Records
---
Amino acid sequence: MARAERAGADEERMRRLERFNRLALTAQSMIEYRRDREAELAALVDAAHEFVAAQQYKDLLESVARRARLLLKLDVAYVSLHQEDLHHEDRPGTVVLSADGNAVKVADSYRLPADGGLGGMVRTCHAPFWTPDYLGDSSFVHVETVDDIVRAEGLRAVLAVPLCVGDDSVGVLYVADRQVRHLTPNEVTLLCSLADLAAVAIERIRLVEELRDTIGRLREDVGEARAALAGTRRSADLQSHLITQVLERRGADALLAAAAESLGGGTSLCSPLGRPLAEYGNLRPVAPADLRAACRRAAETGRPTPVAPGYWTVPLYPGEYNAGFLLTDVGPEADHTVVPLLPMVARTLALHLRIQRNDSTKAQSHQDFFDDLVGAPRSPALLRERALLFSLSFRRPHVVLVASGPHGASARLESSGADYAKELGGLCSVRDGAVVLLLPGDDPVAVAQTAAPELTDRVGHPVTVGAAGPASTVDGISDAHREAAQCLETLRALGGDGGTACASDLGFLGMLLAEENDVPGYIKTTIGPVIDYDTHRFTDLIPTLRVYLESGRSPTRAAETLRVHPNTVSRRLERIGQLLGEDWQGPERVLDIQLALRLYQVRSALSSRSASASLPPRPAPASRTVLGSQRE
């Protein structure tokens, strides 16, 4: 146009050249626009590929923020998602989950207000909003929190577009620049297209994660169903096996053995106080108090109760504390499927015991026999015959205990005594207001000291126990019962309520109460160590002890009588104290010692006289006869 004008072209030619120029500029603009659109579409396609390849939320959101910033060539980009669990005044909140660019103040998981600012407008209208200068634009409601962020980041131009899936908005995509910038509609449309791709990818990731969670839960359900089916089959097999054992009358030992082999640990049938009645396998020792507490909780709940890790107790009859318990020790590393089997094993054992109880005619006959035995029967020969008839053989010694509370034999003491006797394989009866127990054992003192605290714990008040025995024959039971009853009465008369005693514990009173006055045994029990010391060491402790007591326990007067130095008497008394114990000079011990010394002196004199009488007479010496003849 310049050359034509210099050449003097006419007006028509100039208008035509101007039109050509406009057409050329238009063509060039269209070509550049199409080239830009192709680049933008290529960038969108690349972004779509990248979004589809993302497998996790974090990777996807980082990709969306980075693509948005690079697409519009701005400084920063943010992606925020709506989360319904962030409630504030009944409105959900928005959380920035990804940021790209030189962002300083806004980090991941930064919470934005639910309303206000461009984000609030986008969320409300589901449409894009932008401003060339955020802080200087008064066309929307400002929120102080957002303004502080924009001011701290130094942002000016801001564009916010919704992330929509259908009609639902899942978040907001922000891009911002630190310069005042007027965004073109084409840039807004381009970011909206990117936001639509991002929203679809976000929804896809969400659906995939939900599907993964559903598949995981289904797998867990299938695993639990398989485990439950296996447990049911195992329980059915074990129950069938145990029921067969019960029907075949194999006994509690066989049931415990079958249960232990199936459960993989030791099993035991125990009393409410933890005393084992039958056992198979090995069980770890536990504190009796812990075992009793666990049994009490199990009886209350009716469910397996842990005593220790892998150590369980189950009531045979839920709700009944005195009915017995099943103990199982499967170890801390045992499979959790073992515990549901325990109630079934306990019920099977309860069924076995109930069958045994219903078939207890013979046991009741034994009980009647014992009642007659301790009740002064008319014909001992008839009792011996009944013992043979009922096969009541004493394969080991038994002791007899007579127990009474503060007010005699209460109903609770009778019930507890019967349960305790059953646990130990003994018998129980009630005579003359006291509970009589026949228990296996050869030491009445030890049996009584074990029974008294357990009966006291069961009935809730002190129980006084007299003991006698052991009895190895049927005839000896009645004698032992009378002796134990006399020990009980003597113990209560002496103010020993709540204690235990047998004839050997009562000193000379016990010797008088015993059916056979065991004088040698009384002497040996009371001063036997001193006698043995004198015999083996040729000392004079017994004479010193006798003179010391006869002189009013005065070492000086005893020394004068013995014609020794007082220090000698003191040393002998010190030795006697070592042999008899430090409390040997107590009033009760002194009385027993004096009686034992007197009995020992009498027995020694009688023994010497008997030995002299049994010797043949000595012949007279010959020399004496000769001398006598000469004198005569």
---
Amino acid sequence: MNRIRPCVLAGCLGALFAPTAFAEEQAARLRELEQPATWAAPLLVQVAPDPPPAAPSPAPDDGEELDEVTVFGSGGYLRKNATSGTKTDTPLLITPQSIQVIPRQVIDDQGAIRITEALRNVSGVSFGTGAGRTDTFVIRGFAANQFQNGFLDDFNASISFRESANIERIEVVKGPASVLFGRAEPSGIINLITKQPLNKPYAALDFTIGSYSFYRPTLDLSGPLTADGALAYRLNLAYEDAGSFREGLPTARRIFVAPVLRWRLGPDTTLTFEGEHLRDSPRPYDQGLVAVGDGVAAVPFTRYIGNPGSLDINQSRVYAILEHRFEPSLSMRTALRYTALRDQPTPYNPLTGAGQVLADNRTALIGQTSNDGRTFETYFMQNDLTWKFNTGSVGHTALFGLEFGRLGLRTLFDSSPGGTLDIFNPVYPVDNFGAPQRVSDSISRIGTFGVYLQDQIALFENVQLVLSGRYDTYSADDFNFLRQTQTATYAEAFSPRVGLLYQPASNVSLFANFSQSFTPVTGLSATGTPFLPQRGTGYEVGAKAELAGGRLFANLALYDIAKRNILTADPANPLFSIQVGEQQSQGIEFDIAGERLPGWNVIASYAYTDAHVSQDNVVAVGNLLPNAPLHSGSFWTTYRFRPESALSGLGFGLGVFAAGERTGDLQNSFTLPGYARTDAAVYYAQGNFRSALNFKNLFDVRYFPGADLRTRIAVGQPFTVQATIGWQF
């Protein structure tokens, strides 16, 4: 890690958050709503309330409770357990990997409607641009895969913004994670955990209104359906109607319905059905601004490069999850997921966007896309068997898992090329398009299989060893109707992980890990040879600590990740590729979250990220990877006056989210300037009533969150005000 520079921020923050006394009154009402769980099922939203740092025991803790954070102003920035790192409910303090958790309370306090807003709180996370309709994330310099309840969510994530109404928390696992999650980039994974039924009746109604004609009511209902609580439900509803600061874009509208039904068949068996349906129509298609020279074109933020277009998006998910405990130390979880997704340009508003800026640095070529769009369908099954046992004085938590998946994709698009627009003196509408041409007509069928084994070993009371391995196969059959060609792809890979953790004190742990990832590569070389999967290899060392009497949790990590088998141009055959590219990322990350004093919550992060090209035959070695700032960080804090105070019910929030200069493409042909965005909030709650006033981008900073190409540069939202009122029963 010779390129890593010293960082003293961790020491400064550590001095700030010294131990003080802890008051539990803030969470009293929260605990009344929490649901006791019969056992710790992998990937269920269940954590021990404040588990001591101890080795995994053969028997689960019957006192575990649902980690549900819906009570306004109840605290809840600290989470000490996570399921995504090991697929078992394990304290973060004894998990030998860097994992950050964003609880629901942070999402609510910041008025975060999009997942992107919540993930600004995590070190090393930056953003691309999803054409104004979806989220794209970068972790440690590499693209990050999204998951939901442990299932890969690639197709869903590529269509529309993920709805946040039914998200209970977000877990971010850093570094290669293929050992438990299969094909994934070496950056890590983002796992969204959904809300689950509560044992007591609960209702929350909220209405948010904001700048640019933003309106959003949400409803969250839960409770038992039978007297004995064996049957319980959760229902989240959301409607959104939103204008835009970007000129000419149509009003966006979305409807979201997410029911959950949990049936406790017996003391040891639970069956859960969960569904989601999102109708996002019209969803404006906004590629943002364009690059001119080595920077972003100096045009107004509001300018749309083309004719504003929109999409009609429908997506549905259905889950069925069976959990059974054979005995206190042996349990099983079987989960099925089906998804159906469709997006297409709206007939009255076809998609347009800049494809290239000409040599005069002012004329943009504009294309127009229409026709049937894309249709996705996926089937996945996971089966996990967890066994806790001892061999002498050594404790084990063994996990054996199988995963099957079938995915289908149908794509059909027409394009009308030839339009032009002067970006500095535009004349609308653009109407000088050529005749429509079929540019995409294909069908893809993908099959996946994975088998994995993991053992969390408590070698001693203060030493944890995690050994994991996974074998995956991937097969794809792609047929291109335009070229009348068929391409078959097959890949297999073994992904290991080794993690070691040592606790010199009960509230401090030191850890190190080694892990690998794999991503299949479609296509053939000039000689007809199938490409090898891209492989990622990561090394990480770090320290974790519970500070301030257990009210704060801090994580410090140093890492080195290399990604190889990257496609580059074949110098002997320009129409083909070869696999000689390699990229590397090294860095330091620090995260801290929790309650500094009664009523005073904080979540903060810092990242130093050196992500660059380490080997290539086209791109210059040393070029920085796009959307990966060298320095980035965040700080958000809230304070609510105590019940005995004369200002009881009043609260305030303030935060800064910053990123340094970033390159916008792999060729480093242009850069995005650094920025520091300031947000603030005011809260008031009495009885069942609650309210919040969020000020986003308080100083109206002009900034660009990320870019995918020279013609796709995301535009940060200017100063906005967002007011929320709600009632909770």
---
Amino acid sequence: MSQEQLRCSDGTVLTATLWTPAGEGPWPCLLMRQPYGRAIASTVTYAHPRWYVEAGFAVLVQDVRGRGDSGGDFGGFAQEASDATDTLRWIREQPWCTGKVGTYGFSYQGLSQLLYSNAEHLPDALAPAMCGLDERLHWASDGGCHWWALGLGWALQLAAQRCKRQGDRQGWQAIRLSLENGNFLRDGLVLLERFDPTGMGLQWLQADPNNSNHWRIHQPPSELWTRPMLIIGGWHDPHLNGVLDLWRRSAAAGGAPLLRIGAWTHLNWGGGLDQVQLDFFRRHLCGQEPTAPEEAVLMEGSSGQWQARAPQACSGQRWQLASGGLAARVPVEGQLLDQSGGGGSEVVIVHDPWRAMAGRGGHLGLEAGPVDRRDLDARTDVACFNTLTTDQPIEVYGRPQLELEAAADQPGFDLCVALSVCHRDKRVEQLSTGFARFLGPEAQLSQRRSVALQPLLVTLEAGCTLRLSIALAAWPQIAVNPGDGSQPRSSVGADHRIITVTLKLGDAALSILPMVGAN
């Protein structure tokens, strides 16, 4: 193991740790570029670099500009294209490298391997995980709602690292304490304005998630899309839509991307994909034949078994919503009927900000993944709709999408939707969630509304039912709508309004659409 430094084209020095196999080189190199301190090496989701070294690869983990021991100022994703190009060029000049370079990493490390200033030096193979190119849609918001808890939490983590780098121990401690006691949900923006006023996370939280202007969509060199790619995602990861977009772009460009989606959260991969990733790099950097199928393979959420699936396919169900008006009073009164059934009536939900509905689990939860929401569905500010009990297993695969007519009595409301399976033991296991925010005078008009939920692949056992739950808040996953037509910028305050929303069920439907191409 050794410390390596390279000088970028603008003179900034970047620092990295290099691990190499025993004996004489050169070796193909695996590169990770990340902002959290290179010693971590993303071991929360991957094997330590030494494991890859034992398989015959050199591994270089680099502190990005302005982080760890690297020079310069940290500027978020905007800085990475030039530095990545300089790094690839430098690696290929080193005597310990064969000239073959693969990149890997998730989240920030996923996007940092996709950005280059030109096509002269691109990796020979890439394994981006849990990331996307659109900062608005893949990193900061769902359905016009900021990722509140997640967005604040991540921005504050970056801000704390900035304090540490500057020697501001009090600032670091203030941020850490707010995260530990939960006060960041109320005070997070103030802390960011104080300790990281130019940070990427604060810029996102201050921008309008309903307006694509002023949001960055990164554009890698077109040649990158035909390079071998292993693209990794999780059913309960907030960046899944970004992962699917990467797969779509590569496939549309004529590439042959491999897709792996596990029943995972952002940080918990249930054992991970190190062996699959190693086989991928052995093939494309060393010329070895693969030992695993090179096609889209997805993990079925209930069994944990891997299955070959086409991302453009889906199970295709469509249910209509029906209720006698008591779906928000009696959790089993509302119905999900197949196409031969008929919808009807309307349901009224009242949102009281004093006791706003909680958001739990799912892809935006601080504790993400499947959860039991039986107690939430027992509340009277959520409307529930249920299928008939199944007499045989039923697979649900694709992106759930709800469409219905709705209007509020205030110029702002949210629809917070969950899809769950009701088990025979009375558990209500939440599988997927989705959000949509409506602001301004149009919120008070009875109009067609659409809510896209997180994609899923799950099989319902015989004797179970599927449940759709519709609420008007999901705190703290998204900030509570104030009901005055503005985007929320804090926790609930005295000016938050009670909101009454009428759901008209005549043409309301829940459809399962393809993950890719659904919208």
